[in-house]
Design brief:
Blueprint (H helix, E strand, L loop, with lengths): L8 E5 L4 H12 L3 E6 L2 H15 L3 E5 L5 H10 L5 E5 L14 H29 L2 E6 L12 H21 L4 E8 L5 H14 L9 H4 L9 H11 L11 E4 L9
Parallel strand pairs: 1-2, 1-4, 2-3, 4-5, 5-6, 6-7
Helix pairs in contact: 1-2, 1-8, 4-5
The structure holds NADP nicotinamide-adenine-dinucleotide phosphate.
Length: 260
């Protein structure tokens, strides 16, 4: 299926590895030119070269921290009028007792997991509306639907972003600008490997297992392939997806147990 976005421009943050990179690759495979951003310049340059070589699209690498004003300014200077924005807010906040966090902890979490994406949307959506095409995909988390008490710093800001996007998405869709969220669950990235090893320690490694038994017990019986996540991102970014907006799509192998 031709997704009808060849020649479009996308900005993808957190794109040197993991889910951001998988989204960048899926878009590039559709002929979308990329601007990608991450903090580690060496790893980012390598990813840019590999993405360009694999797909033949133009790839511009911008080293920076998307959670800072400087990082966002550098991204927007390199790609002032993206047709597609994939907001991937990067590092997960620390875990802990949700009542222990103070104002500074909450401010930092809100900055990284809500306001960063919100500011990118604010900077790019008006131009998309003017041009009559735009796709925003926010990478949030399965915890938006299935909260985990010790991950409140990650859950609450992402729900705030989801609420913001839900309102704006209804204003922009008539201009062919959609805003949706992708909710990863147990996708096999470097970060997730660390997460399941940490959880295994917490579970006490009953049989010496290095990985969490609880996490391994999902309905799909396997971890998600980041390429599967990238494909969902590319579809939500497609010309054909213009009537899908304000939605939160789980890519989690059925881990979210609800019917809706
Ligand atoms: N994998 C899952 O199953 C899963 C589940 C739930 C939620 N998520 C969420 O999905 C997002 C991506 O996860 P992942 O598994 O793909 O992680 P990952 O494999 O660790 O990749 C993270 C990417 O983001 C970049 N990055 C991190 N912080 C950044 C920042 N402040 N500014 C710019 N780039 C930054 C990293 O490069 P640098 O370090 O060089 O900047 C890297 O390219 C995270 O927000 C995570 O919490 C993932």
């Amino acid at each position: 299926m031709d997704l009808g976005i060849a020649g479009r421009k996308a900005f993808v943050s957190g794109a040197s590895k993991g889910l951001g990179r998988a989204c960048a690759l899926a878009l590039a495979s559709e002929g979308v030119n990329l601007t990608i951003l991450a903090r580690d310049a060496g790893r980012l340059e390598k990813a840019a070269a590999e993405l360009g070589a694999a797909t033949g699209v133009e790839v511009t690498a911008v080293a920076g921290d998307i959670s800072t004003e400087e990082g966002r300014a550098a991204a927007l200077a390199a790609c002032p009028d993206p047709d597609i924005v994939v907001n991937n807010a990067g590092d997960a906040p620390p875990r802990g007792d949700c009542l222990q966090w103070g104002m500074e902890d909450w401010r930092a979490a809100l900055n990284d997991h809500m306001l960063t994406s919100l500011m990118m949307i604010r900077a790019t959506v008006p131009g998309m509306v003017e041009r009559g095409f735009g796709r925003v995909v926010n990478i949030t988390s399965g915890i938006v639907k299935m909260p985990i008490a010790n991950m409140a710093l990650a859950t609450a800001p992402r729900l705030g972003l989801t609420g913001f996007a839900a309102g704006l998405a209804r204003q922009t869709v008539r201009h062919n600008v959609t805003i949706n969220n992708l909710l990863p669950g147990a996708m096999d990235t470097e970060r997730f490997k660390v997460h399941r090893e940490e959880l295994a320690k917490h579970e006490g490694n009953p049989d010496g297992a290095k990985e969490s038994a609880q996490l391994a017990s999902g309905p799909a019986g396997r971890w998600g392939d980041p390429a599967e996540f990238g494909a969902a991102c590319a579809f939500l970014s497609s010309a054909q997806a213009g009537y899908i907006t304000g939605q939160s799509l789980s890519v989690d192998g059925g881990r979210f147990p609800g019917t809706l």
